[in-house]
## 1
Amino acid sequence: MTLTERYLAATLRGIPDGQRADVERELRSSITDAVEDRVEAGEERAVAEKAVLEGLGSPTTLAASYSGRPMYLIGPDMFPAYRHILVMLVAIVVPVVAVIQTAVGIGGGGDYVDALLGGLAAALNIGVQLAFWVTVVFVVLERAEFAREARSEIAVATSRWTVDMLPATTEDRVTIGEVASEVFTTLLTIGGLFFLRDLAWTTEADGAALSVLNPDLTAFWLPALIILMAAIGGIWVVVYLVGRWTVPLVTAFAILESAFAVPVIVLALKGAIINPAFAEEIGWRPLAEGDGPAMLALAAGVLLVTAWEIISAVRRAIRSRGSVPKEVPS
Amino acid sequence: MVDEELLGTHRQELRRGTVVLACLLALRTPGYGYALLKTLDAAGIPSDANTIYPLLRRLEERGLLKSEWNTDDARPRKFYRTSAAGAELAAQLLTDMTSLAASLRALDGGTDR
């Protein structure tokens, strides 16, 4: 088989059936014309053939050029939408999955390191899955015939730009009022935790004091949670001094928030927060139970609030990235 | 001394915009792929075979060129000819191109002197 035949075969593989015969005939004659021309000018046939084929370049590229098929996975028209959707999905889904998986791991009675590793593995897995499937969808959108209309709509939507879409800068300055309310909430939570620790119920029967919180909790977890809360309040103060959310601050914030939320959720689901004896005493035993309505609501509430806090901090860090904060208002 | 690579890139950009016009103008006299390459080359518009061959088919699909197989010669060749629509488009583009060149020259004179 000659080089030309091999070149033709390689090129035609990438050309739709309907055009193949005609392209083959034309390309063959074009190649022959060019080779003959060089041979007439005194070049050796083998040398001429090699030069002509190499001049035409890669058969894959040539075939793509004939069939008008893109030589990229996702083109400039689709890319902004692709990036936007991918970043949004990963930023929201990955942390939530990590927290849930870690909580489930700890709730299942495993030790902390294993549960944390399980959470990380789940986060990595879902991240890779998301990236893969979003990419697949966009690659199909980019080239499928049936997606022609969607393609042009996306292109129009992403190219239509108004000044309203400019990312905010000044309003992303973290204000004193905002920080004050966050610090106040933190202090309130700490006070609440102290209050709960000492809260006791006097039994009607023998007058003995029954603590509302599970006594096992107060030894280690309660002080730990109080320290974490104080650290979160501290981060808010630092954020105010810096003027905006930065990547290191968001990272520290996310770690502390998770360190607070995960144990609370796990303890709630294990029914280790409320003293069962106290629940018994007031006549509503499910209050203390891990699968009772109160503890399920607590776990869900903490999960949602934490996820929201982290996501909004991450979003603000992304939005104010690169912008210089205005001077701290007095 | 202008950087050769930079010059090459920008020249390519400049020519990319004119290759359709060049084909439509040249093919008012019918010609086949390889002959067109030679014609353009001789006219001072060197082009790559792998650009021109697929381009001819695309222009034909859009009705700017018409094609016909000529089997009279020893080798069958596909001849292309600029259609009426193609000629009209070429005339318009040529006017634009000429006025663009004039504008650039005027701009050049305006800053130089």
## 2
Amino acid sequence: MTSTVTAATDLNVNVTSRRRIHWRKQGVAYLFLLPALIVFTLVTWYPILRTILYSFQEVNVAGVQGWVGFSNYVRMFGNPIFYTAWQNTLVYVLLSLVMGAMVPIALALMINEMRGLSSFFQTIVYLPTLIPITVGLIVWRQIYRPEGGLLNSLLGLMNLPPQLWLQDALLAKPALIVIMTWIGAGGSTLLYLYALREIPTELFEAAELDGFSVLDRVLYIALPLLRHRIQIMLVLQVIIVAQVFTEPFVLTGGGPANSTTSPVLEIYNAAFTRTDFGLASAWGVSMLVALSAFSILYIVFTRKDLDQD
Amino acid sequence: MGTANRGIMSNTEWRSFVGRFIGLFYLLVLMLAAILVLFPFLFSFTGGLHNSIDIVKPGFHLWPEKPLWDNYRDAWERFKLGRLFLNTAIAAGGGVIGQLVVSSLAAYSLSRLKPIGRNLIRAILLITLAVPGIVYLVPRYVVMADLDLIDNFMGLWLPYSASSFMILVLNNAFDQIPKDLYEAAEIDGASEVRMFLNITIPLSSSVLLVLGLFAFISFWGDFLWPFLILRDSNLQTISVRLFTLSRGFSLNLWMAASFIAMIPPGIAAFFLQRHAPKGGLTF
């Protein structure tokens, strides 16, 4: 008890001079923060609040027309496209988890073994991520073209029937996922590769000396140690894939028969084609709610890494 | 800690019979993956060499009978690719500068100056990271319109500058800098700005470089936001313009233009490979 009293008196003695220094330093601190605060308020925080407000209003190019309560939400839930878009999202996510999770891990494991050649493969695998996305997509459109496209020509060479690909309601989504994997796998592969390289090689040496096969070493050492990284990447992938827009927008316009439309595409349509900003904001809030769970998961998983002070 | 040049297999194993077999298998798979990955590039390159009739002919034909190398010069002029590269470079470059400046100032404050409420600010930044940008796309557009920033590069630079990810990563990086350096500078009478410029920035150069490169690459290829903001065709970026022109020109020229558009990112990839491992970009 005495120690706390002494501490308290010490504080009392010093409080005035500390406070003086404090304010100036706080001022400088917030001055450094000011650009960020201004920018974030303008482009992020204020818009987020606005979206929630807009979803309860009728808004068009002329501005806010008035409050409409829940009618935007009623219209959104009443439109079958809402369910189609989210169903499509579920399929996109599942397909991309299957294709987009295994491929980068396998590639990373293999590139890791390639002495010397690894930087070559690293550069190549990352290239698709770098090109302007619309450029890559339209090239892929040529590959997928039903008459004269590359894939169907290849099928023709093997005497297989040509497919409609992007114009086939069943094939369109997987076709898009292949493209999305092509674009995105590079970054994931590199991240897994760096994670693999951080594993102390002594572990693999010891396992090898103990007679573990290569497959064993992969399954029982490499993969379990990558588990944390894999979880983060999967959660991130779900969040990213759920926001798919450019691929269906450029290649299929949401079709055929709405089989490739996504919530973001619907937001774009509502906002910029029909200038119904209120409805678009209602869709936005639905995305916010749906993705919050996953985002919070992502934060929980990465907290250990970001929070190292 | 692992050294370079050994993977899951040791070098001895690599040279053994089984090791060579596995190595060959890996090489084949990776070559196949490389072909699949590079194929669209090859496709657009050779597509650019076709004439406008052959390009739409069905059938598997990669290399045309008479490669029209002139198509490339043609495409450069007719698509005004020089202008497009300039626009895209301005958009991306300005965005990177904005993001680096805003984020490093904020990170310096959070890390070294420790304002009251910094944990709250960090928490808000973290939550912002969790909200998909699409959610507030519409009001963000309205804000830009109200500020009269449509058809203005500022309309791109402002949103580009707001990256809570970069602030948090830089915060973490700045925390690693030993306090003694700052204390020594303080004794010598350095101001905060001085210390920021002469201690923090130089010591974080590799993180800043890697983050900057990643940001540049992502802005270079960005589509939706430039599509909404830069309407004037003189200002449009590559991804937007090539999209809007995809039906206006014959396919072979378009392919040539798109191949040219893929070159700068390729160069950036090369630089990234050299610097990324040193950037300490461990998550």
